[in-house]
Amino acid sequence: MTTQDFSHNYSTNFLDAVNRKLPGVTLGDQTGNPFQRNLDYRGFTASPVQGTPQGIAVYQNGVRINESWGDVVNWDFIPEKAIDSVALFPNNPVFGLNAIGGALSIQMKNGFTYQGSEAELFGGSYGRVQGSVQAGGQRDNISAYAAFESAYDRGWRDYANSSHINRMYVDVGARNDDTEFHVNFTGASNLLGNVAATPVQMLNQRWSSVYTWPQTTLLQLAFVNATLNHNFSDTWSFQGNAYFRGFRQTHVDGNGTDVHACDGGDSLCIGDDLPIFGPAGGPSVPNTLGNAFLGEVDRNRAATNSFGGTAQLTNSDKLFGHDNHVVMGVSVDHGNTKFTATSELGTIDPNNLFVTGTGIFINQPDAGLAPVDLRATNTYTGVYLTDTFDVTNRFSVTAGGRFNYAQIDLQDQTGTNDQLNSSNRFQRLNPVIGGTYKITPNLTFYAGYSEANRAPTPLELGCSDPARPCVIDSFLVSDPPLKQVVSHTIEAGFRGTWGNDARTGMLSWGVGAFHTLSDDDIIRVQSPIGTGNFGYFQNAGQTLRQGIEAKLDYRVNRWNAYANYTFIDATYRSANTLPAPDNPNALTDPNNDDVRFINVKPGDHIPGIPAHRFKAGVEYLATDAWKVGADINVVGSQWLIGDDTNQSQKVPAYAVVNLHTSYRITPNIEVFGLINNVFNQHYYLGGAFYETGGFASAGAAPNLMAQLTDPRTFVPGMPLAAYAGIRAKF
Questions:
Q1: CB 493 within 8 A of CB 548
Q2: Is the Cα dihedral 17, 20, 21, 23 positive or negative?
């Protein structure tokens, strides 16, 4: 993908552009916010949501930007205007930890690659207003580039999912015949409103309804990176970088709660009549809330400072008279995180489900809720080597590997939870081998095998005890050992071109198959204790993601068309018994009526991964100044999260059609417009189960929202939205 692919002529944000252009990619949504969606590729995920098992490594200018606390990727930090190119790579160990499903590499602009200046303003549905400016240039051997973006989006859901985006990117560079040096800075301060999945019965009444709020996330970034490229000779070169990344996240989430009136009704308890302060038998909290319906406001804050760098040598000397390309390098990444969390008892407004804090903070470790103050340090070291050797002018072989060593230490700062203290070490050597063969000048066959590993994140290690579950995205309570995930990928396919003149046009195409078997995959599991907010992480044995990918692009005269299709078969390969308190098909433990579980068999499909994905689009240059185009995105059905035995009805498949147009008034001024979901389709991006029965009252049995009896909850897709803008270049 090039900078033109990220133009707002085609899409309103970075993720929509990636989804439109890259085969095999779909977008998931856990937050209801367009700036905070999941990127899914081959059944693996890069997500901004803490607690989501991650499987894709993301790089910006050579720096891995998966945050060190939970490996999350904050897409809202990336200034779209400053993007020069994006490339998506399948499983390759050279990209280090977390690349078990692939890696996304983002290269930013600089004054050598972009000259001129541009201003843009666009807006439209749901209060969207966004503006940007960028400028770049060079004088002799010195370059400078800067981009600034600001956006506001009210959001289309009720109450809760507005976005305030402010971000910038600055690069200063210098070069001569042998050396190029850059220092760049990425800064952001973004306030994002989130909405959780909503019960299907509420969506049937009102498509924009939300289920408990507020849910807001404040994200801030200061990221400095220095890069150096130096050519020692025509065949030897050095590439290196050093960076510092300061990341701050503050999250506020209104939820239901397990707090209820104790048996006597005069005090408040949680779980099995445990007082919400201190140990069992300790002082109870007087019940002064009358008949108010109870919730809680969960707050957490992560402050991470990380730094590191990479040093790499490349050599292109011939070997035995054949072309040969060697890459060798070492990388070190160190992170230091302070994580704090609290849970405040709240009351729920029966009219809009807003949760208001009461000033009473819940402290009951035996029920999984207690203030958390944790320090986590992690150091990731990697050493890698690859060699591409041209056996003939048609046949090339690549072989190599990478050794990863991960050190992760957790230290409780409260002095009350020694179970969180731990020192974890993971190491592995991952090989890669592959080859390409040019059958004809326009037809190439490729095949390869590779392995990659992912160490558990500090967040996953701190929330992995079934006996002490935590509020996902908020709390950490104890630290049993987790194993690292190891993936084994085989892939093969063909790619080629046809035609290359004005009459026949140019067709490029590709078709391939992949097979990724993961050992000790880490999954997030709902706890049998407490509400649906509680959970923990565990190893789930082997999982398999396999499928096929096909794509084509065709250009002729004034026409440009593309189409691609991906099939993914994602299954468990090991048997598992998983708690499933909200799954209507769960079994009941004969020894404990309060515990419900499911038995996952080898061959059961992994929830949340659509099997079929199809994208197509066409664009026509009606005049030298006017373009019109349309895109369709089809996503197949998927199992609900929590339906790991595949017994309930699937999340339905959906198809969305988008239109776009642009008109160049002068060589330097252009207007553009786009319509998303032009047929105003109602569709679900994903779904899960939740606990029915309503919210508990401080003075009575649960009854608020008790009419909601269907345990399915969904994230609805955005209705029809229209946008228009103007762009001027100077």
A1: no
A2: positive
What beta strand segments (E) does 6-82 contain?
25-28, 38-41, 44-46, 57-60, 63-64
State the Cα angle at 714 between 212 and 616, rounded to 5°.
135
Check whether 455 has a pLDDT greater than 60: yes
* Lookup: tokens for 36: 């905070």
Q: Give yes or no for a contact between 641 and 648, defined as CB atoms under 8 angstroms apart.
A: no
CA-based nearest residue to 184, from 89, 96, 111: 111
Is 479:466 a contact under the CB 8 Å cutoff?
Answer: no
Altogether, the residues listed in the chain come to a count of 730
One DSSP character per residue, 588-657 reads EETTEEEEEEEEE-TTPBPTT--SEEEEEEEEEE-SSSEEEEEEEEEE--BPPBT-TT--SPPBPPEEEE
For the record, the structure tokens of 638 come out as 């998927």
In tens, the pLDDT along 650-685 reads 999 999 999 999 999 999 999 999 999 999 999 999
pLDDT of residue 270: 85
- Kindly tell me the sign of the dihedral angle through the C-alpha atoms of 78, 81, 83, 87: positive
pTM across the whole model: 0.93
What is the reported pLDDT for 282?
Answer: 65
Q: How far, rounded to the nearest angstrom, does the alpha carbon of residue 337 sit from its chain's CA centroid?
A: 20
pLDDT tens, position by position, 327-368: 999 999 999 999 998 999 999 998 888 999 999 998 887 777
Q: Is the pLDDT of residue 533 over 70?
A: no
